[in-house]
Amino acid sequence: MKLRLFFAFLLAATATAADFDLLITNARIADGSGKRLVSGSIAVKGRKIVAVGEIEGTADQTIDAGGKVAAPGFIDVHTHSEDICQNPVAENFLRMGVTTIITGNCGNSRTDVAKFFQEIGEAKVTLNVATLIGHNSVRKEGMGGIFIRAPDEAQLEKMKALVDQAMQDGAVGLSTGLIYVPGSFAKTEEIIALAKVAAKHDGIYVSHMRSESVKIFDALDEFMRVLRESGCRGEVSHIKLSGPTAWGKAGELLAVLDKARAEGLKITHDQYAYTASSTGLRQLIPDSALEGTREDYLAKLADPKQKADILAKMAEIRERQGRKDYGYAVIAKFKADPALNGKSVAEAAKIVRGSDTLDEQIELVLDIEARGGASAIFHGMDEKDVQTFMQHPLTMIASDGGPRRPGEDVPHPRSYGDNARVLGRYVRELKLLSLEEAVRRMTSLPAQTFQLKDRGMIKAGAFADIVIFDPAKVNDPSTFDDPHHYAEGFTDVIVNGGAVIREGQLTEVRSGGPLRLK
User: Fold this and answer.
1) pLDDT range class, residue 443, cuts 50, 70, 90
2) Choosing a second label site near 1 at 20 to 30 A (CA), which of 15, 254, 314, 518?
3) 392 lies in some domain
4) Dmax of the chain from CA atoms?
5) What span, in angstroms and rounded, lies between the C-alpha atoms of 500 and 503?
6) β-pairing, 98-103 with 505-506?
7) Number of domains in the chain
8) Are 84 and 455 in contact (CB under 8 A)?
9) Which has the closest alpha carbon to 238: 208, 216, 204?
10) Does residue 16 register a pLDDT over 70?
11) What gap in Å lies between CA 418 and CA 405, rounded to an integer?
């Protein structure tokens, strides 16, 4: 009797068990390859997609896409998210369809990658998180400070060891920020030595090059030399032309890259869909003034001869870029005086110093750095160049942003709207790209470039990172003046099979985690 009851229970359990954990039906599928949309369903079991197309079977959870587009979760290859554990939900990324981020860009990263990944796992993040190992961070730790000189032999060996350990721990490559101190002090040979270590682990070399203005072609020569001599694949970070004197050269720049590719170099590039950049306001100050400690900087300002040299170099930078003043720079985050957030340097000078003359703007910039520094938005690119770069098939879409908390500071809108802006403005309105091609640039191309195994495609065997959106409603309400608005049009976001956003609502699911280079 007991045996019959057991088999009856087993039969009932077998009969009621669902075939899939999740079934997405009535979707128009953009599979990430760039091929045309096809109608069908997507079945998920555990963390992976198990079937695509016409699917029969039951599921514990069913999402009726209602004719909306289902695509692989977007992969943002250029973020600054070292603080992801302090904001593990990172809702601004999710709301524009991003399910995977790569941090550690522009030379700045956590140097202990194993510890960073452990913290990510403990923080219960919503996203998949990969990281690069940053040259600037490695240089500071390896040399024990910020120095204008080259490292000695022992220091270089320590730097190489830091890169090697980071790659062993799962970093996807090496990044540089060669306009930033102390990376700007490094000679090309130093970069090559470290890139060789990354290449040994099949990592990529990702560079914010030494110039994005009139000297960009020299910077590109250096970038390609690093690739040739190290054996690395290469990624040009946030490809752009900054300042009026550099505008109009996008086609020429892409031609140089295409020629290098034809000669055997493996190069891609990423881009955000805006004509303004964002970085530290200190970029307006010559690097030589920033060597050493804060006390060293204050001493230079107090020395009339050294200050005169700083002012002369600032004038050279303005002239080279075709700038008359600093009205194009807008303060985004200044901890010492948040009332200046959202004000241009000219506006802030008027408030703080009573005048917006160039001299007063300069004094304000120098004083802000002395008081701890600020981040800023720089309106410095031309829309025609942005569109030219976007049309190139090897340009990926990346925000250059980070996790945001609504209402905090006045950040660049790209952290809220970048992917949505591409789909809304450049695909739907301007028809610069097809929807399928835009999705490819956000999914399979990044996955292939950074070797994120089984990511970036809707296919059986791939991880179930999936976004569902209405292409007619995708929009980016975030603006420079009023940035704290989530992207619109994304109804469902799935990360590793878990629905982190369902029917437009954030859930309690936290199915992200660290991604290591395989």
Assistant:
1) very high
2) 15
3) no
4) 100
5) 10
6) unpaired
7) 1
8) no
9) 208
10) no
11) 16
